[in-house]
Amino acid sequence: MVETTTPAYTESTFSVYEEIEKMGHEQLVICHDSATGLKAIIGIHNTVLGPALGGTRLWNYKNDQEAITDVLRLSRGMTFKNAISGLNIGGGKAVIIGDAKTVKSEALLRRFGKFVESLNGKYITAEDVNMRTEDMEFIAMETRHVTGLSEERGGGGDPSPVTAYSTYMGMKAAAQKAYGSESLTGKVVAVQGVGQVGKHLVEFLSKENAEIYVTDISEERIAHVVEEYGAKAVTMDEIYDLDVDIYAPCALGATINDDTLSRLKCDIIAGAANNQLKDEEKHGKLLLKKGVVYAPDFVINAGGVMNVCAEYMGGYNREATYRQAEKIFDTCLEILNKAEIEKIPTQEAAIKIAMKRIQDIAQLKSML
Ligand code: NAD
């Protein structure tokens, strides 16, 4: 029989307001400029603790819905990350839509800076995937509300090494929980994505004599860590089937999903990528059921935001930031223990702690 009604596109059922309501955002800012080709979205999730801070991601999204979903998920994650890290800042994030190889220009980045400036400090931007310190310099020509600037300009430089360090600390806390020892010597670790953060993580792991598998889209980046640290390269798909102790997602989000969960054979998942669980509730519960120790992404990758926040607040000191990032070992272990006691997924335990801080401070502020 011939279908007489036009099938509905799934996109047509997507409601921005429903998503915002569900995730609890304060504001979503759509930025557009034909002259420079800028298409950007700024997500401000929660500003109870302070102005929303979170990096800008440049990505070639398939469609607008994918970009909106990403900025909503990422900015919400920043709220929890900043809260659990004890920072007095709220959660936000931005995405620029386009091909990183072709879309970037001084004019486009400065136009984006103007949009950030128009929010009067309610949102502070920094680096994320495909955005570098040199891009922040252009943004800084148009707004003061940018951080992650180069050391030559008095900034804290690339935050990625600190992110890698905090991720490494979180991984060690997960090892303490799973194996009764924080040592990663001899452990087999699969690092997915060896970009800015992943390559530094590989360096830490190699210093501790872990056995390292790596994968990336970029042959050049793989070649670097293979030559420099003796890592073993695998294809992008093979990474999920390896017999490893630890899986460290350091590329994009949602790699813990229905497909990969049945393939992963690791004891621990600890990586830097944001939003690793495709469906927070469902996949968090499945990890618990499988007995995998999951170090929540927003807890252990907070070194980067600690670095850019310290820079923005003034009086930046790199050693102090590393000391702050080191404490993520204790924070992560506390969360893993809480989750075990309450028999809940570790992500849920972490969100509970973050939300409690936000609610306590909101109450405190209402009393002032
Ligand atoms: P990056 O762009 O430098 O590196 C990402 C790497 O992943 C690239 O080399 C890319 O080629 C690779 N990649 C992309 N898709 C892949 C796939 N399917 N399989 C394998 N490799 C793939 O970005 P980054 O700054 O290293 O950030 C990595 C992750 O960590 C992101 O999710 C980011 O949001 C998160 N993060 C970064 C920071 C930071 O300080 N840079 C802080 C917190 C969280």
Bound molecules: nicotinamide-adenine-dinucleotide
CATH topological fold name of the largest domain: Rossmann fold
CATH class of the largest domain: Alpha Beta
Question: Cα-atom Rg, whole angstroms?
Answer: 20 Å
Please count the helical segments: 14
The count of strands amounts to: 12
User: In what range is the share of β-strand residues?
Assistant: 5-15%
Number of domains: 2
Taking the sheet with the most strands, its summary is: 6 strands, mixed
Overview of this protein structure:
The chain is of the alpha/beta class and 368 residues long. The protein folds into two domains: 19-79 and 90-153, Rossmann fold, CATH 3.40.50; 160-302 and 329-354, Rossmann fold, CATH 3.40.50.720. 46% of the residues lie in helices and 14% in strands. The strands form two sheets. Strands 1, 2, 3, 4, 5 and 6 form a six-stranded mixed sheet that branches. Helix 2 (64-84) links the parallel strand 4 (56-59) and strand 5. The protein is globular and about 50 Å long. 49% of the residues are buried.
Please specify the SSE layout and strand pairing.
Blueprint: H1 16-23, E1 27-33, E2 38-46, E3 52-53, E4 56-59, H2 64-84, E5 90-97, H3 106-118, E6 123-124, H4 133-140, H5 160-179, E7 188-192, H6 196-207, E8 211-215, H7 219-229, E9 232-233, E10 246-249, H8 258-261, E11 268-269, H9 280-290, E12 293-294, H10 297-300, H11 303-313, H12 318-326, H13 328-342, H14 346-367
Parallel strand pairs: 3-5, 3-6, 4-5, 7-8, 7-10, 8-9, 10-11, 11-12
Antiparallel strand pairs: 1-2, 2-5
Helix pairs in contact: 1-2, 2-14, 3-4, 5-6, 5-11, 5-12, 5-13, 11-12, 13-14
Bound molecules: nicotinamide-adenine-dinucleotide (NAD).
